[in-house]
Structure of Uroporphyrinogen decarboxylase:
Amino acid sequence: MSCSSVSSFTSSLFVPPKKSSFSNHKPRFIHCSLGGTVVGPKATATAEPLLLNAVRGQDVERPPVWLMRQAGRYMKSYQIICEKYPSFRERSENVDLVVEISLQPWNVFKPDGVILFSDILTPLSGMNIPFDIVKGKGPVIFDPLGSAADVDKVREFNPEESVPYVGEALTILRREVDNKAAVLGFVGAPFTLASYVVEGGSSKNFTKIKRLAFSQPKVLHSLLQKFATSMANYIRYQADNGAQAVQIFDSWATELSPVDFEEFSLPYLKQIVDSVKQTHPGLPLILYASGSGGLLERLALTGVDVVSLDWTVDMAEGRKRLGHDIAVQGNVDPGVLFGSKEFITNRINDTVRKAGKGKHVLNLGHGIKVGTPEENVAHFFEVAKAIRY
Ligand code: CP3
C-alpha cells in the first residue's frame, strides 16, 4: 500500500502509544485514507539502505531518519565514556572509542543513518593547526591565523597519514551496520573551518574573520582554497573507507551576506562538490548551514544532492523554493524534543507532510541539544519509523 500524494497521508499518521518506553513495544497504527488497509512495519529486502534510496529519488515507504549530533552528551552511555576518557580528542581519535560512541545511538534507536563520531575540526592538527576541544568552552585554536605568513604554514590534509583512525572506524562501522542503515561521514566547509581557525574558537560576532575577508580577501581566499582541496580529499577518503553519504557542515556560512557568501563560501563548496563528483559520482552529498532561509537557493547552486534545512524555514516553503530535483533533510526544531510526546508526534507528522513523498530525510534543524530527554529521542524515532507514505 502506498499513499502517493502529500495530502493523502495526512490521515494515516502514527498514533503513539500512551506511555512511551525505551524498547520493544509495538507501535499502533491507524489506517490510511487511500485503501483503508492497515499499515504495519514490513520487512523490505533492499540491498541499499533506505537513506540512499530516498535521496536518489527511488520509491520508498517512509522517509529515512537520523539526528544531527545523535551521538553525544544527551546520552547517559556517552557521559559514562566521558568520565572514563575526559579528553574529547582521545574519544574522537581512538578507533575503539569512535566505533563504540558512533554505535551508541544505533544500538538504542536504530536510526537510518549512523554518523561517524568525530568533529569538523579533527583534520586541523594534520594541517598544522593545533587545537583542542575543551569541556565547557568548546573548540580552542592555540594560534589563531591572521596573516599571509600564518596561512602559508597551513599544510594540505593527507587523511591516510593524519587520521588513519577515521578510515579504520568507518570500515568497522560499515561492517557492523551492514547496510541496515547508511554509514555517514562528514566534513566542515571551508568558510566554517576558516571561521574557527581565524576567530580562535567559537564566535558570536565573527569580527576577526570579517576583518580578514573585508580587508585582506586574498589571504582568506588562499586559506579557503587549502580547506577546499583538503576537504574534497577527505570526503573521498571517507567514502573509500565505508562512508555511504557525506554531510558538509557550513554551519556559519549564513553569517555572511548573500553577496559575501557568493565570494567566500559558494565557490569553494562548488569546487568540493565538482571534484568529488568526478571521482565518486554516486556518493550523495548533503549540505547543512544553520539559519539558511536567506541562502536556500544559493545552497542548491553548489550541486549537492541534499540540502539540510534548519527549523526557521517552513518545510513546505523550503521544498517549493528548492524544487523537487534536490532532496531535503530536516527540519524539526531541536527544542521540540523538550516538548510533550504528543507535540513531538504532531511536529514530525507536520514536517513529513510538508516535505511530501520521497527525497526527504527526516532530521532535526540543527544538532540535538545537551539535556534532551533520551526517552523523547526514542519516541521521535519510534514515531518517525512507523510513518508510511
Ligand atoms: O552528529 C554526530 O553525532 C557526530 C558527531 C559530531 C560532533 N561534532 C561531535 C562533537 C558532529 C557531526 C560535529 C560537527 C561539528 N563540530 C559542527 C557542525 C555542526 C553544527 O553543530 O553546526 C561544528 C560547528 C563543530 C565544532 C564544535 N565541536 C563545537 C562548536 C563544539 C562545542 C559544542 C558543545 O556543545 O560543547 C564541538 C565539540 C563537540 N563535537 C561535541 C560533540 C559531541 C561536544 C563536546 C563533548 O562531547 O565533549
Summary: The first strand starts at residue 113 and ends at 115. The mean pLDDT is 90. The first helix runs from residue 50 to 55.
